[in-house]
Amino acid sequence: MKLGIILQSNNPEHIWNTLRLAIASLKTGHSVQIFLFSEGVEIKDIADTEHFNISVKLQEFKDLNGIILACETCLQVRSKTKSKVCSTTTMKDLVKMIEDSDKVLVFG
User: Fold this and answer.
1) How much is the pTM?
2) What's the pLDDT tens digit per position in 16-63?
3) How many whole angstroms separate alpha carbon 27 and alpha carbon 11?
4) CATH code at 69?
């Protein structure tokens, strides 16, 4: 199954759970693409805590060949030119992800 995930939260628990689901899906043979949207583009700015090791989960997701993209406009709103963790992209690519996915989930 092709799973498309839209992450639009900078809440550490939301991010952590999104990554946990994405990793579990990859480990069972599904393909996963995460599109960082709105506050989700701040993922690299969220510090790890005792309960939410976001940087570890993010690296595990990438090591399992998960695809992650960030909304260029959402980054610009935050005065950033690029993401520290992934390629930047546009709404056109989000539409393509939605079209190509068997299931689309939104977190945030």
Assistant:
1) 0.93
2) 999 999 999 999 999 999 999 999 999 999 999 999 999 999 999 999
3) 24
4) 3.40.1260.10
